Amino acid sequence: MDSPRESRIDPAMVEAIGALGNEQRLQILLALAETTNDHQDQWHAMSFTALYEAVDIGSTSQFSYHLSKLVGPFITETDDGYRLTYGGDKLVRGLRSGIYESTTGFEERTVAGTCVFCETDALVAALENELFVVRCTACESTLLTDSFPTSQERHRTPEEIIDSFGSRIWSSVVLLRGGVCPECYGPVDTAVDAHDHDHDHRTAYTHRSTCEGCRFVIHLPLEVVAAFHPAAIGFLWEHGISLFELTLWEMFAFIVNGQMRTRVRSLEPFDATVTLAVDGAGLELQFDETHSVSNVNPRSAPATDRQH
Ligand SMILES: [Zn+2]
Ligand SMILES: [Zn+2]
What we know:
By secondary structure, the chain is of the alpha+beta class. It is 33% helix and 27% strand. The protein is built from ten helices and 13 strands. The chain has helices spanning 11-18, 23-38, 48-54, 60-70, 86-97, 150-153, 158-177, 222-227, 230-238, 248-256; strands at residues 75-78, 81-84, 109-111, 123-128, 131-136, 142-147, 188-196, 203-211, 217-221, 260-266, 271-278, 281-287, 293-300. Strand 1 (75-78) and strand 2 (81-84) form a beta hairpin. The longest helix has 20 residues, at 158-177. The chain is elongated, with a radius of gyration of 24 Å. The two termini are 48 Å apart. The structure holds zinc ion (2 copies). One zinc ion binds at residues 115, 117-118, 120, 136, 138-139, 141.
């Protein structure tokens, strides 16, 4: 498949984007979205006359001209009238949520969790260069970076903003389990990368998912992929840990203290085991060459590296 740099820009796409640079056309799109809200029906259609009356455009011929520029990529014409396409719906939601506005951010906050690099409990969450980051103040490593739309900070306290990133990451993990891109829902390719830590010569492994279509890339610790296996979710729950209430940065403590331990026997073909150890009980999750968990075995009380 061509990369975006190699692929040519489709003239139809240029025309579609060009059609949007007009206030009256955006009014038409917003009017269609409004009727969807009024009728509580996501696919409610609007007649030519009703749509014309809903917008402030002088003549029907002018209205008809603007409408024709939107039919296709943003509006579909059905027997019942006009309604937004998926692209039109996405565009209106983007406009309403302020996708083109910059994020103002929040004051840096201390968060619970342990640095996987220096093993210190010194993590902070902050907005840096329009991105949400979790960073260690002891060794200055960045542990997590995520996109930060302004709609995510609106109507939320800093604590609520931070919690919302926790939920967002887990929602991506659930989609990626099914091979679905969290951005465009296209198929993803998976791989596992090894990262050597300088301070203790340990190697950390991340599970990398890459979307073939929109080129979205997400790296997650291999332990996270193991922990989202239904058997692991149940095992943790039985030991008083609700995985969905835990954030990724809180989970780092389990990796550092050995409660989640990874053993990779081979990267190509992939062959690895993640072992969970809580309260003297254990669960072993075996990965296969597809980078997903293929086998689960209970294990009794594996020793942990370090206990807090
Ligand atoms: Zn650190
Ligand atoms: Zn995608």
